[in-house]
Structures are given as C-alpha cells and as structure tokens.
Amino acid sequence: MVLVFINCNKTKDMIVDREHDKHREIKPIGRCEVVQSFVYLGSLIDNSVSCENEIRRRI
C-alpha cells in the first residue's frame, strides 16, 4: 500500500478553460488554492491555452 500526501501550502490548482468562460465559478479542490497562472521554471503558465502572455512578458 502506497500513501500519497499533498502539501496544500505548496500545491496550487489551475483549471484550463479552452472556451475562455471567465464567468464560471471555480471552487477550490480540497484546501489547495485555485490560481489563474503561475511561473514554472521561468515560464509563465496560464489557463488561456495560449503563449501570448508568456511572449509579452519576455519582451
């Protein structure tokens, strides 16, 4: 038996919405925070499924 524990202080949830429905209410999963974007290894990851914000951030 393998047990997996998630540290909610370090874990964030991001829901990717391909239809760009900004009016949808997003509830946290468990106690983890729901975010719209985050930086991972120097790259901006966001829920718009586009790299436009990453390119603008680097210019």
Describe this structure in words.
With 59 residues, the chain is α+β, with helices and mostly antiparallel strands. The protein has one domain (12-58). Helix content is 12%, strand content 20%. The chain is built from one helix and four strands, in the order ββββα. The chain has one helix spanning 52-58, and strands at 12-13, 33-34, 37-40, 43-46. It starts with 11 loop residues before the first strand and ends with a helix. This is Reverse transcriptase domain-containing protein. It comes from Callosobruchus maculatus (Southern cowpea weevil).
List the helices and strands and how they pair.
Layout: E1 12-13, E2 33-34, E3 37-40, E4 43-46, H1 52-58
Parallel strand pairs: 1-2
Antiparallel strand pairs: 3-4
Number of helices: 1
Sheet with most strands: 2 strands, parallel
Beta-strand level of the residues, as a percent range?
Answer: 15-25%
| Derived structural class | alpha+beta
User: Tell me, what's the shape?
Assistant: extended
User: What is the straight-line distance between the termini?
Assistant: 49 Å
Give the overall pLDDT as a whole number. Answer: 80
Q: What is the H/E string?
A: EEEEH
Count of discrete structural domains: 1
Protein name: Reverse transcriptase domain-containing protein
Organism: Callosobruchus maculatus
